[in-house]
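hiii so um. not sure if this is the right channel but i have a protein structure encoded as tokens and i wanna go backwards to a sequence. like what aa goes where. can anyone help
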């Protein structure tokens, strides 16, 4: 796994802005001890799991049937379940570990989902996840430009707009997460911020420049039509510096958490 080119493996399949972020995040899961069976909460189409892990994870859970069908075709998981995270069809204390990559920020009823996660995990089981944090919206380039122009109302409106297209329900810092996780029965072992504001600007504009990829997806079922190194060489050159960023950035706009299930929920 040390020699795996996570950036290429994502660029050939995803819009560049998503590929860049997922490639960065895939590196964080290497060399972690994730005892089986492992649960992937919000597994989606399974693409991330097939890239980030060198084994099938045991169970993927997602509320949407379309992505789960893709995950099944990829063979990303031993088993799949269509379920809301608030009510999962598993017995108590069955999972030895769990992950959730860039999912929890989208869940409005997050406290209830975390309690359900605590129910299905064994005491001491690791729960590892990535989420955007409180620095995210403050560092959006368009909103920042509007702020500098004194157009505070428009800047606020743009941040609300970006939240809507990114489907953000929570953009919280570590203090909020530590308290939230503690109430649900998890202990935070360590966390670190990552993904610089400059990287965020590239991701932000990718939502607009990525329209051709969206059209390609609708027409062909693929985000990238020509999956060759020469076709993606310029894209790679642009995003490579952000893939090569340090694993910890103090003012990073996302946070990686390593937690464990406590002895019992509080």
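sure thing!! here u go:
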């Amino acid at each position: 796994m040390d020699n795996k080119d996570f950036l290429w493996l994502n660029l050939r399949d995803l819009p560049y802005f998503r590929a860049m972020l997922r490639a960065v995040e895939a590196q964080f899961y290497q060399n972690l001890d994730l005892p089986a069976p492992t649960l992937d909460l919000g597994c989606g189409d399974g693409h991330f799991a097939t890239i980030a892990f060198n084994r099938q994870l045991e169970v993927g859970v997602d509320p949407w049937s379309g992505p789960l069908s893709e995950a099944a075709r990829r063979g990303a998981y031993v088993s799949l379940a269509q379920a809301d995270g608030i009510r999962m069809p598993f017995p108590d204390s069955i999972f030895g570990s769990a992950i959730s990559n860039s999912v929890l920020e989208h869940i409005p009823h997050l406290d209830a989902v975390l309690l359900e996660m605590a129910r299905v995990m064994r005491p001491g089981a690791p729960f590892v996840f990535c989420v955007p944090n409180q620095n995210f919206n403050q560092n959006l380039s368009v909103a920042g430009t509007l702020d500098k122009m004194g157009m505070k109302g428009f800047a606020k409106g743009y941040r609300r707009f970006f939240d809507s297209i990114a489907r953000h329900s929570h953009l919280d810092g570590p203090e909020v997460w530590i308290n939230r996780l503690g109430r649900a029965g998890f202990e935070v072992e360590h966390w670190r911020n990552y993904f610089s504001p400059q990287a965020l600007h590239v991701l932000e504009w990718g939502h607009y420049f990525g329209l051709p990829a969206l059209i390609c997806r609708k027409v062909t079922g693929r985000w990238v039509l020509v999956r060759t190194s020469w076709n993606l060489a310029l894209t790679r050159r642009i995003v490579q510096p952000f893939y090569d960023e340090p694993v910890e950035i103090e003012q990073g706009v996302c946070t990686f958490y390593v937690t464990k299930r406590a002895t019992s929920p509080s």
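oh and Residues 137-166 form one domain.
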